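We read letters as residues; the fold follows as tokens. Both lines appear below.
***
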Amino acid sequence: MFTVNDVVEFILNQESELHLFNLKADDTYVWPIMRVRLMTQIEKQLGLITTPHDASRKWTRKERYMKALKYDSKAFMYNKKHDTVIIRHPRKVNVDGNVIDIYTAEIQKKYPEALVIDRIETNNLNLVNDSLIVLQESVSDKYSKVIKERIMNTPHFYEFEILGSAIQQVFSIDIDVNAMFKDAYKHFVAGEERFMRFLKKVEPKEVICVVAYDKYDVVSACKKCNVKIIEVQHGIIDSHHLGYHYPSSIPAACFVDELWLFAPYWRLNASLPLDDEHLKYIGFSYFRNECAKYEVDRMPNVLTVLSQGTSGKAMLKQILSLAEAYSTLQINYKLHPGEFQNYKERYPELVNPPHNVKVYKNEVPLYELLKSSTYVVGAYSTAIYEALALGCIGILIDVPGTREYMNTLIQNGLVYITNNLFKDFRFIENDSKKNEIQNIYF
């Protein structure tokens, strides 16, 4: 049985042996296009993770095209200059009647003249739009010639052949790495060309974005246009997250110029490819502001579950066993936003849950649930850290990834970890050391 750690260590070793960060196509370092994508693919084929989020609304081909064309044309016509561009996270939250990106909302207040954009794919148009939409791929073929020329010259890397053979030898799974790269590179080129044209029109001095490892086309475009690229932390950073962990040196073009973190704690969890001068600590104002709104009593028999799309089914099985055995325990089952739409199909057991299990989307704010709970149960997510910072007793379900992504908490005895929640809960309940952890995370 392989683990997430096995996959991460394998990729890190292959990077070193094959010098993957030296590979270039058309003057572009290509390994960042593949790094997280390949890790995820291996983990999926090994059964370590499942699809994290449900698909959003299915648009008809005509609906999608017409909506995308509208956004595309508006962005193509835009020509106002801005010193700062802010790229928001695509998932928004309703706060006091305003739909915001919780990671950049406070930053936007400090940069009132910034151009705020959403960077999305043409098949993901389900968002409340109060900003400029810069599609990752144009629907009008305005740049088709240069894109086709670059794609036609995509090299076949011998190193990727060796990498594919190594994956087969170690994990006994077949992945054509070159084919995977060519498909990814096609989309990368379209996105990079699109964004470079946008940068040349707007002429910003800096771009601030969320989830940069998923926006390497933006990072690369900024580097080629001499625009500073800054990333804002949005979740867990640790040595098993290949979006941030780089134990060996890499070309500067492969990573953002600055990383703005919640707190110094996260700088210690991974080998970030930046020196202290290029790290900034900005807190997580959304967490602090929202928590302050709720004055509720902590209830001794209340437990909140933080569902995790990648491991939700394995977690749910243990939660239902716990609910049956502890009928006086009130269990709040908080769905991940990516599970809202189709959770009844994903988790049919929650259609008519036990009497002491209540399923929540956003009916009650997460921080209100956590403040009223004695226990929080999850696998690996930023919300676990938020729960600890609010004084909950943390319990982790030992599913693939938990021991890797939550290693620091486990090693320091700040949470309980179990592969049989029903069996271990009595001990946890009786042990129940008070959580005196200070909020060092946000």
